[in-house]
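Q: What residues go here?
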C-alpha cells in the first residue's frame, strides 16, 4: 500500500470564458489567483490557478478556459462535485453572498454530519461549501472576504461511478480509509492529509457516461511531498498494473497521470517547487508566466489571450 499521498493537490476543470471564470473565483468565491500561465500542451489557452495565499497543495482549483467550448454533459465516470471547506457557521454568509451575485442552483443540505451549500459555477459545474470544525488552514482574505467565513481550501471531491468497487480498491491502495456510507455515497478519508482529505464515491449504476466539455473536471491531482516519493508512488502503481505516464515538468510541480477504472483521470503532483518558484508570494498570479520553451513567442501568445481583471 502507498503511504505517501497527502490528500488532494489540485483539481483542473474546463471553462468556456476566461474572464467570467476569473471573476467568479477571485471575486465571488474570494480565492487568490496564484498563477496566470498557459496550457503547456496548447499555449493559446490560459491555465489559471486559484487558491490560498501561496497556492498551497489542497487549495488549488485550476482551469483551462477554451473559448466557447461546448458545455459538458454531467454523468458517470467523472468528478461530479468539487467541495471546499469553510468555517463552521459561515453558510448563511455564503448563501446571502452567492444569492446576491446571481449564482445559480443554490441548495442547502447536510451530509456526513456537516452542513453544506451546493451551487453551480459559471459553466454549470457543481460545487459545495462544507462547514468544517477546526480546519487550521489559513484562508486567503485579500479579496475582502473575512477570515471567519473565507474558503480554507478543498475538503474533497465526489465522483459518480457505475460501480465503485474498483475505484474504492484503488483509493485504499493509495492510502485512503473507507469511512461511513450514506445512501449511495461511500466516503474515503486519507489519514494525516493536508486538509483536502475526502473522496466520496457515489454509485449510480443506470446513469449514462459524462461527456467532457465546459464545466467538466478534466482531472484530479493528489499530493506527494517530493519527486522521490512521486517515483515510489509511480512504481507502486505500475507494479499493480496501472499505465502511468512518465514524470512531466509542470514548472510549479512535477506530474504523473493515469486513468482509473471508473474513468476519472488521476494525477499525482509534487508539493515542490511551488508557485513562488518564479514570482514573489506578494505578487503571485499578476503577470503572464510562460514555460521557457514558449518565451520566444510571448508577444503572439499574449496577443491571442483575453486580458483578465487583476
Ligand atoms: Zn493537473
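A:
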Amino acid at each position: 500500500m502507498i503511504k505517501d499521498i497527502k490528500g488532494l493537490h489540485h483539481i483542473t476543470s474546463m471553462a468556456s470564458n476566461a474572464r467570467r471564470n476569473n471573476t467568479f473565483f477571485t471575486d465571488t468565491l474570494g480565492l487568490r489567483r496564484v498563477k496566470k500561465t498557459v496550457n503547456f500542451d496548447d499555449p493559446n489557452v490560459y491555465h489559471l490557478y486559484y487558491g490560498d495565499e501561496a497556492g498551497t497543495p489542497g487549495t488549488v482549483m485550476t482551469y483551462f478556459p477554451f473559448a466557447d467550448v461546448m458545455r459538458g454533459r454531467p454523468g458517470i465516470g467523472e468528478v461530479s462535485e468539487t467541495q471546499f471547506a469553510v468555517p463552521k457557521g459561515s453558510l448563511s454568509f455564503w448563501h446571502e453572498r452567492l444569492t446576491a451575485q446571481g449564482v445559480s442552483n443554490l441548495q442547502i443540505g447536510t451530509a456526513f454530519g456537516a452542513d453544506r451549500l451546493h451551487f453551480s459555477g459559471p459553466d454549470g459545474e457543481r460545487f459545495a461549501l462544507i462547514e468544517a470544525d477546526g480546519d487550521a488552514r489559513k484562508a486567503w482574505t485579500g479579496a475582502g472576504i473575512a477570515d471567519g467565513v473565507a474558503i480554507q481550501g478543498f475538503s474533497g471531491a465526489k465522483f459518480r461511478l457505475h460501480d465503485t468497487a474498483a475505484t474504492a480498491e484503488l483509493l485504499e491502495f493509495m492510502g485512503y480509509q473507507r469511512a461511513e456510507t450514506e445512501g449511495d455515497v461511500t466516503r474515503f478519508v486519507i489519514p494525516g492529509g493536508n486538509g483536502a482529505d475526502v473522496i466520496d464515491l457515489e454509485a449510480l449504476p443506470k446513469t449514462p457516461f459524462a461527456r467532457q466539455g465546459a464545466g467538466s473536471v478534466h482531472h484530479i491531482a493528489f499530493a506527494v511531498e517530493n519527486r522521490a516519493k512521486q517515483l515510489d508512488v509511480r512504481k507502486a502503481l505500475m507494479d499493480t498494473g496501472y499505465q502511468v505516464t512518465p514524470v512531466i515538468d509542470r514548472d510549479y510541480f512535477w506530474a504523473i497521470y493515469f486513468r482509473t477504472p471508473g474513468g476519472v483521470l488521476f494525477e499525482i503532483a509534487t508539493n515542490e517547487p511551488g508557485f513562488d518558484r518564479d514570482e514573489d508570494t506578494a505578487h503571485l498570479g499578476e503577470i503572464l508566466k510562460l514555460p521557457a520553451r514558449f518565451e520566444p513567442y510571448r508577444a503572439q501568445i499574449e496577443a491571442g489571450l483575453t486580458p483578465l481583471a487583476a
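A: Context that may help when evaluating the design: The helical segments are 18-28, 91-100, 165-173, 227-239, 298-304. The radius of gyration is 18 Å.
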